[in-house]
Amino acid sequence: MSDPRDPDLIDYGVPVLVWTAILVFVCRLEARRQIHHRLNVHTVTAYLARLACQALHRVPHGDTVAAVVRRLVVEELAGVRTDLVRSLIERRQLEKFRLLATDYLITLDGTGHLVLGDRPSRFTEGCLTQALSNGGTLYYRPVLEAKLVTRSGLALSVETEFLENIPREGRSDEEYKQDCELKGAYRLLPRLKDQFPQLPICLLLDGLYVGEPMFALCQTCRWHFLMILREGSLPSVHDEFYRLAPLRPDQTRIYYHQGVRQVLRWANDIAYRGRTVGVLECVETPKGKSEPTTWLWVTNIPITSENCTRLANSGGRQRWRIENKGFHVQKHGGYAMEHAYANEPTAAKNFYLLLQIAHLFVQLFACRVGGKKDIKARLGSLRNLAADLLESLRTAPLPPPAELAALLAKAIQIRLDTS
To answer: Where do the H-state alpha helices sit in 224-335?
Structure first.
């Protein structure tokens, strides 16, 4: 990453400051001020010096970290995050999680990042707004995230679009008067294609994206898709499926798994605006329950009796992981995603990206030590794992150079499937 500072006037290189911010999230300290209170000890200084390859006499202050993070190039830091996921793909670490042994699962969803209240300031420039009942205006900064998800529970950030009310190239100010998730998706997805031009992808999307523009984009990018089909989203496709389904009993399969009964029905080649799509329905009834749950997806993947269960269970139903394994954990699992780590827009974006990098490391670390279930059985919770890691960093000295070299020379194996 580039360093915008004068090299003759700095004490800490960019790697030191970036790693310090990452440790805040890895150890789930939830606030920048905790750098001084929890990380500023000589053992952490030694570990940080090793990570950043720079001699250090102390851990940088939280204000120093924020002052540099606000000057980093957002696109460069986002590229670091994406390259980490790319390295896992290139090393074939995620190979066995591909849908139908071909496609990597990418899901898109928006979430609230920062809510800044009703007082305008420099920090609220470009924010989305919402009119309040008292006549005021609420300022907030949402974000659209693309994550690579796996059935084992991984949710790895690959692309991010910050939703802002700012002019953009080729669009008038009026067209971007209020940004939204759908507009952001049409900016994010072409970047995803540029980042991974040859990667076979299946997009898992909710009903917001269903329609010809997204179908055409997937066709252009040569991507597959599984999108939730709500009643009223595509009336002609929805009605045609329920007209055809009773006429084709051969396109029905009943599937049992761990006391759950699923009835899957499908129809291919349903015409829609000059193209054909398929529809897959899954009606699930858990053992001991009378009320079933129904899912309905529209897709451009040909559906058969051999692949319908995998499309439903290993495909469409994995979309929830971006919320449960991604946003929910980052908001309520000690990462404090909704906390304002800095009161400047660029810094807020960069801290968000550093959180995504830290969460990727934590997910791999959890797999290294046995997976979520094993950690909960032994330590009680993933938060306790973070607390134990912090305690180790604070109290366990860095091994001597020869011992450390021997340790790092040993091959290790990280099993990403711990489900």
So the answer is: 235-244, 308-310, 321, 328-332
CA distance 41 to 128: 41
The confidence score (pLDDT) of residue 418 equals 59
Provide the residue range defining the domain that includes 30: 7-71+341-409
Q: What is the pLDDT of residue 389?
A: 94
Contact yes or no for 277/218 (Cβ under 8 A): no
The DSSP code for 312 is I
CA distances from 161 to 62, 78, 186, 296, 364 (A): 26, 10, 10, 28, 24
- Predicted confidence at residue 173, as pLDDT, reads 57
Whether residue 35 contacts residue 62, with contact meaning beta carbons closer than 8 Å, is answered with yes
Alpha helices in 318-344 (DSSP H): 321, 328-332
For 254, which DSSP code?
A: E
- Cα separations (Å) of 131 from 76, 117, 138? 35, 12, 6
What distances in angstroms separate CA 30 from CA 66, 77, 281, one per listed residue?
14, 21, 42
Minimal CA–CA distance to 207: which of 235, 245, 249? 235
Neighbours of 213 (CB within 10 A): 12
Same domain, 200 and 347: no
Residue where a domain stops, chosen among 332, 353, 375: 332
Whether 238 contacts 139, CB under 8 Å: no
How confident is the model at residue 104, as a pLDDT? 98
- Distance between CA atoms of residues 38 and 394, nearest Å: 8
Q: pLDDT means per 10 residues in the chain (419 residues)?
A: 90 96 96 95 95 94 96 96 96 94 97 89 88 90 96 94 83 69 96 97 96 97 97 93 94 92 96 96 89 95 97 95 90 94 94 97 88 86 92 93 90 75
Assess if residue 380 is contained within a domain: yes
